[in-house]
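We store sequence with structure; for instance:
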Amino acid sequence: MNETTINDYIPMLNAKGYQAYSFDVSAIKGRNVEIYFKEFLDGKEVKDSPRLFFPYYFEARGNKLIIGFLPSEKDSLALCCFSWENTLSFTSSLKLRQLYWESENKYVYSYRSDPFEPTSPLEKDTFIPLVYYSSFWYDAEDKVTRCCGSISDIIKRSPHYYILGIKYY
């Protein structure tokens, strides 16, 4: 038997709804930053969706940003956590949309998250996508719900998704 490490717990935490993505933001340390999220429905950005978690700039004082998801007591909400090292930490919610699963004759909430690979170098005054949070879709041919493929493939099929990211100035 091997000694258990913290990494051994990650699959169990993921199975219970905990996800965490760590980003190196040392290149923008000392800069003013805004945290954004963008909501999309049927491939179009939702214009009346709130876009900013914080309506003000803050100075990034740390080298690491963690964006994570926590289990929610309500299946219609996802809990999203932001933690910027030595700067701020907060939790917010994302409204989810039901998907009709025809073969089961029921409505379900089913989402998954994936990190984007940030572009290098990071561009000032430009939205930098970091995490994609997407709903599954119903595949009538196979009579299942699914959310698989690359992010560019999922964006084409997912009826509802969020892109969480930052801008720096």
About this structure: Residues 102 and 140 are 8 Å apart (CA to CA).
